[in-house]
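Ticket reopened. Same input as before:
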Amino acid sequence: MPRSQSLIASIDPAKISKHFDAADVETRLDTRWQNEGVYHYDPTRPRGETFVVDTPPPTASGSLHVGHVFSYTQADVVVRYKRMTGMNIFYPLGWDDNGLPTERRVQNYFHVRCDPNTPYEEGLVLEAASAKVRKKPARMVSRPNFIEACFGLIEEDEAAFSELWHRVGLSVDWRQEYQTIDEHCRRTAQHSFLDLHAKQLVYTSDAPTMWDVDFQCAVAQAEVEDRNQPGAYHKIEFAVEGAEEGGASSFVIATTRPELLPACVGVTAHPDDERYKPFFGKRAITPLFHAPVPIFSSEMADPEKGTGVLMVCTFGDQTDVQWWREEGLALRQVVGPNGRLCSIDFGEAPYESLEVDKANAAYSELAGKPIKRAQTDIVAMLRDPDASATGNGAPLQGEPEPIEHPVKFFEKGDRPLEFLPTRQWFCRLLDRKADLLAKGAEVSWHPEYMEARFRDWTENLSLDWCLSRQRYFGVPIPVWYPLDREGQPDYDAAIVAEPEAIPVDPTTDVPKGFDESQRNQPGGFTPDPDIFDTWFTSSLTPQISSHWVDDPDRHARLFPADIRPQGHDIIRTWAFYTIAKAMLHEDVVPWHHTLISGWILDPDRKKMSKSKGNVMTPLPLIEKYSADAARYWAASARLGADTAIDENVWKVGKRLVTKLFNAAKFVLSQTGEVAPISQELDRAFVRKLQALAADSTRNFDEFRYANALAETETFFWTNFTDTYLELAKVRARAYADGADAANAISEADVLASGSAVATLRLGLSVLIRLFAPVLPYITEEVWSWSFAGENQGSNGAGAASPSIHRAAWPSESDFSGIEAPEHAGSFDVAVSALAAINKAKADAEMSMGRGVSLLRLAASASTIDVLEGVCADIMSAARVEDHAFDVDPELGDGLCAVRQIEFKDREERGTESSR
RNA sequence: AGGCACGUAGCUCAGGGGUUUAGAGCACCGCCUUGACAUGGCGGGGGUCGGCGGUUCAAUUCCGCCCGUGCCUACCA
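Engineering reply: fixed in the latest deploy. New output:
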């Protein structure tokens, strides 16, 4: 037997562990990838070869849950695919530590509160609060001490998250890591403000703003959510001034907020409402406080609602704000920033009253009380006939009528929002709606229908973006105000930081042209004490990563980004603000595609939330099923679809990993002489493999990774391990068996054996590369056994790559030079024949390994024609010694039926390898 | 109240530019200790594709209406 050819590099299966140890491989490979810089961005390559990812910076102080793994993995799968197609990947990750969640965590963890008036304590070390400490009032700490505590805690939280991302195998370039609170981000955010200020796109105003009374902080429209709350219509009688001349002298309003009666500044009804027409232009008198207020008509009043006439207060809701503005009504602010009623004096403008003593006596019962308590008390007072403005008896008409109605809450808040006039910075957006919509349309949304959420939100935007927050741990607003001779700030003459000075903290830094001694002195300056809305900074993630401020050249190469993955819950915030910023700064879209991932729901399809206690943490699941299984689960869900967590899917993922491990061990341990892929079955299999690779590429290009995975998985089981591998096994092993002189094989059989081994290896190589974006660990492990040192692609087109994650994505070059099969259907016919024989064995309750001494197989004439070409493989796989074909024109093409089967005795099995 | 998505086997989900018996996995039943793998293999049962109408030779797939679920936006006296 000539042995002129070189041997196929094979592995010794005995040297590979019996089972796949996922945890061990995960830590080993992640370390290796980091050390080898597999995920590093190469700044020297051109933009056209670069794929830029804008990632969501997680809030590390939040709880870790499986939803994080879900959405971040979906993005990583896409990125890994792009990397294998040869793209230079820019894939940064940061932490959104700036903001309220961190403050809340610090408050709870140490049981402290920030008090800007408390002096700084040098070297203060806080300790986690014990249960005992928590019972006492929270400790007050200075603003700098509080911020130090925040920095301390985020370090821990981010380390925990980082560990998870490494474990899950996110292929992030960790050299690009940032924190939204770090100096670079503060500088970027303040630069953004400077630019918007220069463009006159930001302004201050002390307009009524939505205010959370617990956080004592302004809130933007995007952070507001409606919650259905029980409430009640309270019907309250008002008097009409000058009604003596005849006609009705009173009317009854309906309100859900009787406690705002002292803040009543007007009364309105629809202009066509006959009931109230006579009153327009007159003044109404409120009960209890006897305040005269104008009665005016308004199209916005709904005659069907309540009693059709309502009191306008400062401020019950946004419509009140509108009426207040349009009608030039008085401002009677009774709700204070802390959610309690303020002290006011009736008789002094703007608190008019016709009966000052009565009004003050009544109000003194309410001042200082929380809103809810004030409501109860005022309702009681309205039951007193003495409170009446008309003399008709108790102003409260009947019992309050319970209703359920939507009430605005801060999404993180516990009490309804109030509208309070406070000085805030705003960014102009309302006059740019059309442009925003146009930019949204320029982005490709995946899935497409998610753009509707952006559109709905943008079209319904009713307020400019409120930027200031009365908080501490965030990016300071880089602004001071000059103080006049009386020490009063001139808010219209804001002093904005110099571009070279940023980032600044106005509470410690001094504006240009002043010195520290002038801080808070008449004729000096005072800092803006506020920080920016967190979204003000996180809406700049593409510019943060591109180094917009410091490196215009890098910025030009990394901005706009290619993809933005994110959840659909933050379309109105993160996506919206990012689009807005990119538009306002540079009139571009921030990214070309956005991939919207769905939510993870609990097994009962309920949203996971801490309060429901149904949150699942990912690490125990990863330990149980492996990181690859976690990724398999995440990648099985299509974009945008909310998915109930199903542990079963993790189980299936784990099974796939095991199967890959075993199949790879078998394939790579086959030996033989290097030979071209020449046999009919092999060529037919390769054709199917080639179609799979093309399909997978198309799916990935359209971000349909779940379809790609499903197809590859199905192919792997049904066309590779269950069938091709079984059909080609005996032929592949023939060479090794032939090493034994007694079984010496012919030259033709050497070639046939080499063809089988080459096909098995090509199949494995292509399949693990198709799986690599989803299953980075098992595929890298298998790759390392042999392929890492070889050129891939039948013509050697794909250069050797030590990591599968930088190996070439399967393409035509992997299949070039392999002849097409004689019959396109050869493979399917072989599978069908084998299945028919297997079924016959199963029906006879025989093991699949049972030898067959005689087989008569029926098929159509054309199918038999095809069968002849792959007959040897079928018969050896089924261990058939003698066979005959019967022509049966009744059978459809490709179908086979067993007409006769005779089994060998059990001990006789196992002689089939002598073919 | 408008909009979007979804409703396919017991469960989780594919699919569908109309065409023979509608798919997978899990679960279930039967069989097989076969030589990569019992963390396996082979075989099997199970669905009038939410309902009603329409277009069509033909619809689960296209259209309309309805029902259910989820979400988005609005409503907030």
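Chain A has a mean pLDDT of 92. Chain A is about 35% helix and 15% strand. Please confirm and we'll close it.
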